[in-house]
Design brief:
The complex is a heterodimer of chains A (386) and B (309).
Chain A: H1 4-28, E1 32-34, E2 45-50, H2 60-69, E3 77-82, H3 89-100, E4 106-109, H4 115-125, E5 130-134, E6 147-152, H5 155-168, E7 173-178, H6 183-199, E8 204-209, H7 216-228, E9 233-237, H8 242-250, E10 254-259, E11 270-276, H9 278-290, E12 303-306, E13 313-315, H10 324-339, E14 345-346, E15 349-350, E16 356-358, E17 363-364, H11 369-372, E18 381-382
Parallel strand pairs in A: 2-3, 2-4, 4-5, 5-6, 6-12, 7-8, 7-9, 8-18, 9-10, 10-11
Antiparallel strand pairs in A: 1-3, 11-13, 14-17, 15-16
Chain B: H1 10-22, H2 24-38, H3 46-64, H4 67-88, H5 96-115, E1 129-130, H6 138-143, E2 145-146, H7 148-166, H8 168-178, H9 180-185, H10 190-214, H11 228-238, H12 243-265, H13 272-276, H14 278-290
Antiparallel strand pairs in B: 1-2
Helix pairs in contact in B: 1-12, 2-7, 2-10, 2-11, 2-12, 3-4, 3-5, 3-10, 3-11, 4-5, 4-10, 7-8, 7-12, 8-10, 11-12, 11-14
Classes of the chains: A alpha/beta (386), B mainly alpha (309).
């Protein structure tokens, strides 16, 4: 019985049993659910969706889960999803079981931190499976060709929300509760501020970094501190804006949502919100795959990006505190952004320490690489990235 | 609307407000752990109990519309987890720290599983006691909106002190925790006393969870506790197993949570990771300062964490 080879095989057997058991259990216990196969004959296309948090968090994951739900009923498509998957090796196991057990041929990894090393490792291991990562990390030539990246220019919606916020603010001070100083977050902070400053150039935005994508206590503290400082419109970029919006409402100040629609959390103070609209994106991907296109044969572009024009974004319906004047200004900006007339990052733009970051006369369109590497805060933002 | 900015006065105000708002979970968990450890057992699983309490309070408040019923159910849910820990950790050759870690995973897993349908809805919150009506400033008024649970916790701390010092039951708990052999010779059932202490301690921790989800931040999510239960366990050592000192330590930790955001809101924005980490750094410093190989901790129950034969 002391035979070492026996020990190893037993350990492997137990590991295998545990993994299967755990997967079966998680399948039963609701985090993971499969919708029934839609097509009668042939093997359906199986797409797996992975979220970092719960599916109904009023935030990032809810937006993706709503996008996934919009695929229900498509002929010949089966979707599987798993929520609350941490950005650790756990996501590799989730992807592996979606591929091996559910037969997924496309994986949508919706969280930023899934990409490196997890999606990359799985993409090498399963070269025939397509991996779509939500976020701006894909680099042509560096990463495997069965990896694609999709993301929206949600800062367009934040720009419009900034215009609405500027009209509502009487103290001319706005607040932005942000998780981490990464380019996507900074771009939202800057666009929100630039939008607000088109209304009144004296407006400032105070930014507070909580350091974590989800830390309800610190988000509530940040919201309270800002309210104490006389800030009267709050917005945020955290995984679930629920606590921020509720705290703002309790303190009697305005709030502007993010990721999904939080209007019912703040019936009085909710102005509008920058929302994702992933349904178009996912439907489009599925249609392309069902037409036989793949990332590998070049049929599906590796980088998919879009803003208002491409239908990646929407604004929450305006709240009761939004004046007709503000609505008009916001709608005008939205139309101009959709038509491409309005470029948010148009020189000259200075950062908040007085350095010129975009030279006069220079326009950075939404696709500009410089914007995906943003590491500065625009003039009018109080805070620092360091 | 907040009429004017507070400027630098915002920092002390935010820390005081943070103390009043955010220290109740620390207080309840540390009082619960204090009671448990006085009987000679460690319950690390209070982190899981805290989450379970937060979830069940929120769920019951949402389903029945009565936040107070939620608070009671949170305590009962805590007692349920306490029963499991109390029974398991008293089996022969079972280590209570290991059981505690298992209970963290079990409690949080159960809370996450049962709590899935309650992430989205908004539950009725506990009523607020406003003590700030004397002030003209909305900031002060808001800071002095106090949770009834916090006041209850503040009242429980000296009561528990009295319980340990002067009541027969308190002496029994201390006897079992300090010298199980002597207690057994007196004819006391060690199992029953420890079980009762663990269950009562878990009841308090569950109520601490209710304070998280029904008062501040006032919402149920899987990240609601962010390690507060574990920090509260560490805090009991800092407080030398003295309930009134648990109260002071909880106030300190509640205030420390507010430092990072408060400093950023007035424009001190460098080192915010460091300031945000202040509660954790405080925990570490306390552990380093209070642990010395040269002396035993004063106030530590004699049989704390010792294996049962």
């Amino acid at each position: 019985m002391r035979n070492p080879t026996f020990q190893v095989t037993r350990r492997q057997a137990i590991r295998g049993l545990l993994a299967t058991g755990a997967f079966g259990l998680s399948l039963k216990l609701g985090a993971c659910s499969g919708s029934p196969s839609a097509s009668g004959g042939g093997s359906p296309l199986v797409a797996g969706f992975i979220y970092v948090g719960p599916k109904d968090d009023y935030g990032y994951n809810q937006a993706h889960a709503e996008g996934r739900a919009s695929l229900d009923g498509i002929e010949g498509l089966k979707t599987v999803e798993e929520a609350s998957v941490p950005e650790t090796n756990a996501v590799q196991e989730t992807m592996r079981s979606m591929i091996d057990i559910d037969g997924a041929s496309a994986i949508f990894a919706t969280s930023f931190g899934y990409f490196d090393p997890h999606v990359l490792a799985m993409a090498k291991e399963f070269p025939e499976v397509q991996f779509f990562h939500c976020g701006g990390l894909y680099q042509e030539g560096v990463h495997p060709e069965n990896v694609g990246s999709y993301f929206g220019y949600i800062d367009e919606a934040q720009y419009v929300a900034g215009i609405v916020a500027a009209h509502a603010s009487s103290s001319k001070r706005l607040g932005f509760i942000a998780a981490k100083p990464i380019p996507q977050v900074l771009r939202n902070v800057n666009s929100f501020t630039l939008g607000a400053r088109t209304v009144d150039p004296t407006i400032t935005t105070q930014v507070i970094f909580t350091g974590d994508w989800a830390d309800p206590v610190r988000e509530a503290e940040a919201a309270n501190s800002m309210a104490d400082q006389g800030i009267d419109v709050l917005t945020c970029h955290v995984d679930s804006p629920k606590v921020v919006i509720e705290t703002a409402e309790r303190r009697g100040i305005f709030s502007s949502g993010y990721h999904a629609n939080q209007a019912e959390l703040a019936p009085k103070g909710y102005l509008t919100g920058a929302e994702w609209d992933w349904s178009n994106v996912y439907k489009n991907y599925i249609a392309q795959m069902q037409a036989g296109k793949t990332l590998m044969n070049g049929g599906i572009p590796h980088l998919v990006r879009g803003g208002f024009k491409e239908g990646f974004l929407k604004l929450s319906p305006y709240g009761p505190a939004v004046t007709a004047e503000a609505q008009q200004a916001a709608d005008a900006a939205k139309t101009q952004l959709a038509s491409g007339e309005l470029v948010i990052y148009k020189g000259e733009i200075k950062d908040n320490i007085g350095k010129t970051v975009i030279a006069g006369g220079k326009e950075l369109g939404q696709t500009a690489v410089e914007l995906e590497q943003m590491n500065w805060l625009a003039e009018g933002v109080q805070g620092s990235v360091g | 609307m907040a009429s004017e900015a507070l400027g630098w006065w915002g920092i002390p105000l935010a820390i005081i407000a943070g103390t009043l708002r955010g220290s109740a979970p620390f207080l309840f968990v540390s009082l619960g752990e204090c009671l448990t450890e006085k009987s000679g057992k460690i319950n690390l699983g209070l982190e899981g109990t805290l989450l379970m309490g937060a979830m069940s309070a929120y769920a019951v408040s949402y389903l029945t519309g009565s936040p107070w019923l939620g608070v009671i159910v949170a305590g009962v849910a805590g007692m349920f987890l306490g029963c499991i820990h109390g029974w398991l950790s008293q089996q022969p050759r079972v280590n209570d720290v290991a059981v505690g870690i298992a209970m963290i995973i079990f409690g949080s897993g159960l809370a996450f599983f049962l709590g899935k349908p309650f992430i989205q809805p908004s539950a009725p919150q506990l009523p607020v006691i406003s003590l700030g009506a004397w002030s003209q400033m909305p900031q002060v008024q808001s800071a002095l909106q106090i949770s009834p649970l916090f006041l209850a916790g503040v009242a429980i701390a000296p009561l528990m002190q009295w319980f340990f010092r002067s009541s027969r039951w308190g002496l029994l708990v201390r006897a079992v925790g300090d010298s199980p052999d002597a207690a057994r010779a007196m004819g006391i059932s060690i199992f029953k006393v420890r079980m009762a202490s663990i269950v009562a301690g878990s009841f308090l921790a569950g109520i601490g969870g209710a304070s998280l989800s029904l008062f501040y931040p006032g919402s149920w999510s899987e990240r609601i506790s962010s390690g507060q239960g574990l920090m509260a366990v560490a805090l009991v050592i800092f407080a030398r197993w003295n309930p009134v000192q648990c109260l002071y330590a909880s106030l300190l930790f509640g205030g420390a949570q507010a430092i990072g955001p408060a400093l950023q809101s007035v424009g001190i924005d460098s080192y915010y990771y460091l300031f945000n980490a202040s509660p954790y750094i405080l925990t570490l410093i306390i552990m380093i300062v209070t642990c010395s190989p040269k002396r035993t901790l004063t106030g530590a129950p004699g049989a704390l964490g010792q294996a049962q034969e």
